[in-house]
Amino acid sequence: AGTYTVTESISVGWIQTFPSGGSHSIIITSGLNSNGKDFGNFHLGTVTGLCFNDLNGNAIKDMGEPILFDRKIKLYRSGSIVDSTFSNDEGNYSFQGLESGHYTVMQELPSGWVQTLPINQSSYALEVVSGVVFSERDFGSFKLGNITGIAYLDRNADGIKQNDEVGLESWKILLLKDEIIIDSAITDSYGQYVFENLVGGSYKVVQSLQSSWFQSQPQSPDYYLVTITSGSSVIGRNFGNYQHTALHGIVFEDING
């Protein structure tokens, strides 16, 4: 006879959900059978994933694509942030010890980057129940690319920009993808143009040739095909231009010699 306390030794990675006080207190009297002194347990959840540089922007971790370390990953529960971590030297991140509930895992993108994975969404939505392990919640990222060049006066029409050949201002350069014009740029006072924030893919750069001018660079074909991968900075896509000149004179009979 007497007062007893029954407790449970919790295993690593588990939390006790019942009873609310953590133990049962029982007063034993002669012949007492005390039933229903139960213990409920919840196996804490885990989320893991990888951060990588999606060089071709196809939302797949292809062979040779580098990992991204020190990327900040945030964990939300029911809309409020509850934790954050950074990807390690191998690109991996993890959240452990998650209690039951609805979670969202989101990557914090640096400026100049876009997210390719998960596809068509910015985060992963997770419903954590006892013992669940969410793996391969990966984040693919693509660093936006750019294309630059100069439209210039090619005085000798040799298709090569010489140091003394000046840029042509207010010339229109077109950017096409899948044969559709997606952007255009006007050259500045130095003849320079730039297309920025380009996602992965194949592009065509074409000059809108002005009346009475001829193009010397590039030729055959008269445009540039450019493939943008993550972080591409494609320079020197120049357009050389010149005009035809005329020589005038008279052939005459010099009567008096």
Write up this protein.
There is one protein chain. Helix content is 0%, strand content 49%. By secondary structure, it is mostly beta strands. The model has no long low-confidence stretch (mean pLDDT 96).
What would you say about this model in short?
This protein has 257 residues and is mainly β. The chain has strands at residues 2-7, 14-18, 23-28, 40-43, 45-53, 72-77, 80-86, 92-98, 101-107, 113-117, 123-128, 133-134, 139-143, 145-153, 172-177, 180-186, 192-198, 201-207, 214-217, 224-228, 233-234, 239-242.
The helicity comes to under 10%
- Please state the structural category: mainly beta
Task: Report the radius of gyration as a whole number of Å.
Answer: 34 Å
Stretches with pLDDT under 50, minimum 5 residues: none
First and last CA, distance = 150 Å
Question: What labels would you give this structure?
Answer:
257 residues, mainly beta, 5-stranded mixed β-sheet, 22 strands, rod-shaped
Topology:
Blueprint (H helix, E strand, L loop, with lengths): L1 E6 L6 E5 L4 E6 L11 E4 L1 E9 L18 E6 L2 E7 L5 E7 L2 E7 L5 E5 L5 E6 L4 E2 L4 E5 L1 E9 L18 E6 L2 E7 L5 E7 L2 E7 L6 E4 L6 E5 L4 E2 L4 E4 L15
Parallel strand pairs: 5-12, 5-13, 14-21, 14-22
Antiparallel strand pairs: 1-3, 2-4, 5-8, 6-7, 6-9, 9-11, 10-13, 14-17, 15-16, 15-18, 18-20, 19-22
